[in-house]
Structures are given as C-alpha cells and as structure tokens.
Amino acid sequence: MRIVAVLLSGANQPGITDSGWESLIQTHPKLADTGVRRGINPFTKKSIELPPRRDIGRVMEEGKQIGSIEWAQDGSNILLVRQEEGTDASRDALVEVARDVATCLGVNCDIDHDLVRLSRGDDYVPPAEEPLEKALRLWKSGDGEGAVAHYMASFNVDLRTAVRDLKNFVARALSDG
Questions:
Q1: Is the domain of 96 the same as that of 171?
Q2: Quick one: 166 exposed, middle or buried, by C-beta within 10 A (0-12, 13-18, 19+)?
Q3: Most CB atoms within 10 A, among 125, 131, 146, 167?
C-alpha cells in the first residue's frame, strides 16, 4: 500500500491521542475497524479469534476498503494514510477522507510530506515552493508560529517585521480571492 498523506500535529496543536484515534475509528462514517481476525495460538497450535486492531482504521467507500489510516511504526505521533493496492478508488477520495479525519482530530493533513514523496517510488520531485508561498500556506493552515519562523529565516527579518508582513500578505491574498 502506498502512503498518500500523513496526519500530524502542528506547532500549536495537541498531539494525536490513542483514545481520540480509537474513538474516531468507531464513530467516523468512512472508517471501520479491522474486524475480528483468525490466528494460530503458537503454544497449542489451535485456531483462535484475535480482536480488532485498535491502531488501524480501514477507509471505506461504498462498502469496499480503499485504504487505511494507521499509526506510524516508528513510534512517532503521526498517522499514515495508505491507499489500497489494486483498488480503482481515486486517490482524491482517500485524501478527502484523510482531511476530514485530520479536522476531527485537530491536526494537519500533509499530502506532500517526505514519506508521501518516498512512497511514490518514481523520480517525481515536486517543484520548490517559494519562501513567501510556503510561509503563507503555513499561516493559512493555522501554523502561525511555523509561518513566522520560516519567514524570519528566509528573509532575515525580525519577529515584528515578519508578523506585520505576513498579516499584510494574507489580507491581500484573501481580498484577491
């Protein structure tokens, strides 16, 4: 399965909690748990039922699994959104669910994270984002601290200048539509 998005918290956002993620799997209309699974007891060699995994939510569309959202296996506080191989479901539908899940959890949905680019497996290199465009994107996504820090570093300005400039740029961008 290919990674299509990463859900992670921003600078001023609380991290994703186990309980928040587990309850969202049960309540979100596009998510389902993994269901009861069959396994073999290594000691008795008898078949046993294993409870649903609490860390994985299957992304469902029209009764079919199109992907999954699961904790990163390195222990970091991020969720990986994976597209089911062999499905004809669009990546856009999966990303739409990922964005909704991110909103429910109060975190960001990053579709251009390094893990997503590595997962593509091709030579795709996204175009470099201009420093001002990146700062504005961070500001609009609610990561004001990240936007200001990026702007200060990129343009070698002080905090007051960075905040003033970004507020002006955002106001201009919003008035332009």
A1: no
A2: buried
A3: 146
